[in-house]
Amino acid sequence: MLKIAFDPIYAHPLPEGHRFPMLKYELIPEQLLFEGTITSDNLFKPNIADDATVLLTHDYHYLQKLHTQTLSEREQRVIGFPQSPQLTIRELMIAQGTIQCCHYAMKFGVAMNIAGGTHHAFFDRGEGFCMLNDQAIAANYLLKNKLAQRILIIDLDVHQGNGTAKLFEDNSNVFTFSMHGKNNYPFRKEKSDLDVELLDGTDTETYLQLLQQQLPTLINKVQPDVAFYLSGVDILDTDKFGKLKVTPQGCLQRDVMVFTLLQQHHIPCIVSMGGGYSADVKIIMEAHCNTFRAAKNIWNI
């Protein structure tokens, strides 16, 4: 069965004026339920990640600031969200949702978090709408509990996973692969194990060719026990910030390529949604829904 982490708090953690970026987290499950791709049995509400698990990845003093609502104004500006207790709970739920997805993926082949992909969060700080790095937290959880020895993170958001790259720069058990816009945020890049930089205006054909050149070889080289996939849809030609020219069909082909390779190699896949900033929320929602549809079809669950 395809298991999907979701809770209504994903959609409404912010004051009214800040809610548009969160709207997709409510619309995606509604659409998937409406069309019959999933039923309510596919959805599960995550618990809240405990401090000990979060501290495998993040700094104690930073986590305490989140708990006590004592981030400075500057720290809040860099993150991009005003702090609130509900937002901290949301981040802890997202992290735990990705952890729980690991167990479901090992059982069913794939599992998905409607939120997550918070790859700009560092050891001791957040930035770029990311406060806690859900995939890094889950990867360290797997290593700590000896549920995996070799992990591959496939980050195909248009923005480099700088926080993830920095967190694992000295960890040979986790291989970080980021394919992202060269001239896009973050403007100071970190060094992933493999970075593929895309020029502004990269089209669908070029994008898919570059991914096809790298991913099969990478999977054979790393031979991961599990893979995390960050499936941002900010690569779309309609995205306000992406600067690429990938069509919705090309974005779906990307997902199919990733899922097919992982399924063929019997590698459990944990998916976090990542970014998407097209002006029309229906375009964002449909592109994300395609990721869920592709996963369900390829694993036939």
UniProtKB/TrEMBL annotation:
Keywords assigned by UniProt, alphabetized: Hydrolase
InterPro entries, A to Z: HDAC_classIV, HDACs, His_deacetylse_dom, His_deacetylse_dom_sf, Ureohydrolase_dom_sf
Pfam families from the UniProt entry: Hist_deacetyl
SUPFAM superfamilies: Arginase/deacetylase
Highest taxon listed in the record's lineage: Bacteria
Domain named Histone deacetylase: residues: 23-280
Entry similarity comment: Belongs to the histone deacetylase family.
PANTHER family for this protein: HISTONE DEACETYLASE 12, HISTONE DEACETYLASE HDAC1-RELATED
Protein name, per record: Histone deacetylase
Biological source species: Ferruginibacter yonginensis
Taxonomic lineage of the native organism: Bacteria, Pseudomonadati, Bacteroidota, Chitinophagia, Chitinophagales
